[in-house]
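FIELD: query
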Amino acid sequence: MLDAVKGWGSRAEERDRKLACDELVPDPKLILLRAVDIDAPRPLVYRWLCQLRYAPYSYDLIDNFGSRSPQELTPGAEQLELGQRMVAIFKLAHCEPGEQLTLISRSRLLGHVALTYLVRDRGADASRLVLRIAWGPPRLPGARHALAVGDLVMSRRQLLNFKRLAERDAHRVGV
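FIELD: result
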């Protein structure tokens, strides 16, 4: 059960792979992975990730104050700058255009957390989206387990929303 919470959708090689977020949280107490296959090309999926500048794409009622995350790509969203705010509480720490984004945050509520979203090719018009979270959660009794379960709910929804939107757009252009 705990493995499912910590590694939803991920594969062994993804769990073993080091990503940029690992360098930003020196002694993580929690490593979480989430992954999903998407029937859309990598560049399109990456463009959807850049939308994190504007909204979280999870449960909007909970983490976007009831405002709906944009359902269409925002022109210029992929023009990112290190240090810019993403998903309200994160900052862009590292970026490889077309491939990955790494975000970081330090807060009393969540502790020290870094996330890397990696998009890989999975065939000509398909990709794989992997989210790796390195977390130094607050030192509260039960915080790690509670945050891992809560993150699974929110991250799963976010990745499935990106999947739905990217696959919709790929279908629109006949990819």
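FIELD: remark
The helical segments are 2-7, 12-16, 20-24, 42-50, 60-63, 143-172.
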